[in-house]
Design brief:
- The chain is an alpha+beta fold.
- The chain folds into two domains: 53 residues, no CATH class; 229 residues, OB fold (Dihydrolipoamide Acetyltransferase, E2P) (Beta Barrel), CATH 2.40.50.140.
- Helices cover 45% and strands 18% of the residues.
- The protein has ten helices and eight strands.
- The strands form two sheets. The protein has a five-stranded mixed beta barrel. Strands 1-2 form a two-stranded antiparallel ribbon.
- Helix 2 crosses helix 6, helix 2 crosses helix 7 and helix 2 crosses helix 9.
Length: 293
C-alpha cells in the first residue's frame, strides 16, 4: 500500500482510501490524477506545436530576409521580389515551350513534359499502348487552341481543344474546381497553356485532368523554389547563388517606386528590368558570369 497526500487538506492517506479521514472529502486523489493527465496532454500538445513551428516551411521568401544561425539575411524584401520575378519569368518561358535554367536544378518533381495537345493526340492515335507508356499519369504542360468550354457532370468544367487528325474529335482537359474565374474569361479560338496530368485516351480522344493554367503552375513552383533557396545557397548551388547576386544587382538599379517592389505584376516588372542601364564594368562582370555558367 502506498501513501499520497489528500488534494483537499494535505493529510497523508492510503491510495486505496475512498474518503479522507481528516477532511472527509470523498475524492481525495482522483482529481489529482485527472489533473496530472491533463498536464501531460498539455505538455505533449505544446511539444508537438513547437516542433511544427520549427519544421513548417517559410512563406514567400520571408526566411531569406531574416538572420539565421548567426548568418546575415540572404536578401532584402525588395531583392526577393526581383528574385521571384526572374524565377517566374524563367518558368513561364518553359511553360511556353522554351528552355529553362530553373528546371535543370532538379527541384521540380515531377517536371512536366512540354508538348502541344495536337502532338499528344496524334501520339495516342498512332499507338495508344505506346503513348500510355510515355504519358499516362504523367505531368504535362500542353499548348492548344480552345474549341469550346463545357460543363461536365456536376460542377466539373472541361476545355475542349482542336487537335489530332479527326476534326470532330476534341481532346479534353478537366479543370480544377477553383478555376471558374479563369474559365469564365476564355473564348473559343484562344491559344492557351495548361499544366495537367494525362488520364489516357477516352472514346478516341486524349483526356487530361487536374488542369490549371500554366502561369499558375509557374507561380506555385516559384514559391517552392524561393522557399528552398536558403538550403540551396547553403549547399553551394552556383546557379542559384549567381541568380541571388543578379537579383541584388538589378534591385539596386531600380527606383524605390518601381512596380517590381509595389506589386506582383511580373510582366511590368520585367519591362522595367529590361530597361535598366549598366556601367561598362557591370556589363563586363555580367558577361563574365554568364560565360562561367
Amino acid at each position: 500500500m502506498s501513501m499520497i497526500k489528500c488534494i483537499e487538506c494535505g493529510e497523508e492517506i492510503s491510495t486505496d482510501a475512498k474518503t479522507c479521514p481528516k477532511c472527509g472529502t470523498s475524492k481525495p486523489h482522483k482529481n489529482k490524477g485527472q489533473m496530472i493527465a491533463v498536464a501531460v496532454i498539455a505538455v505533449i500538445t505544446f511539444a508537438v506545436a513547437m516542433n511544427y513551428t520549427k519544421t513548417k516551411e517559410p512563406i514567400n521568401g520571408e526566411a531569406l530576409t531574416k538572420e539565421a544561425n548567426g548568418k546575415p539575411a540572404i536578401m532584402t524584401p525588395n531583392e526577393v521580389k526581383i528574385y521571384k520575378s526572374f524565377i517566374q519569368d524563367d518558368l513561364s518561358v518553359y511553360a511556353d515551350g522554351g528552355d529553362s535554367m530553373i528546371t535543370s536544378l532538379n527541384i521540380i518533381d515531377p517536371l512536366p513534359i512540354q508538348m502541344t495537345i495536337n502532338h499528344l493526340q496524334k501520339e495516342y492515335e498512332k499507338n495508344e499502348v505506346s503513348a500510355d507508356g510515355k504519358y499516362r499519369k504523367k505531368a504535362v504542360i500542353v499548348k492548344g487552341k480552345v474549341s469550346s468550354i463545357d460543363r461536365s457532370i456536376g460542377d466539373n468544367y472541361l476545355i475542349m481543344f482542336h487537335g489530332g487528325s479527326n476534326e470532330f474529335m476534341h481532346p479534353s482537359a478537366s479543370m480544377e474546381s477553383d478555376q471558374t474565374e479563369y474559365l469564365s474569361k476564355l473564348n473559343k479560338g484562344d491559344q492557351i497553356s495548361l499544366s495537367c496530368n494525362v488520364s489516357g485516351m477516352l472514346m478516341g480522344t486524349v483526356s487530361l485532368n487536374h488542369c490549371i493554367p500554366a502561369n499558375v503552375w509557374a507561380s506555385d513552383v516559384t514559391d517552392k523554389i524561393v522557399n528552398a533557396t536558403g538550403s540551396l545557397v547553403d549547399n553551394g548551388d552556383k546557379r542559384i547563388t549567381d541568380l541571388v547576386k543578379f537579383s541584388k544587382l538589378y534591385a539596386s538599379k531600380l527606383n524605390p517606386d518601381s512596380k517590381c517592389f509595389s506589386g506582383d505584376n511580373k510582366d511590368e516588372c520585367m519591362k522595367e528590368i529590361a530597361n535598366i542601364k549598366f556601367t561598362d564594368d557591370e556589363k563586363k562582370s555580367i558577361k563574365a558570369q554568364g560565360a562561367k555558367n
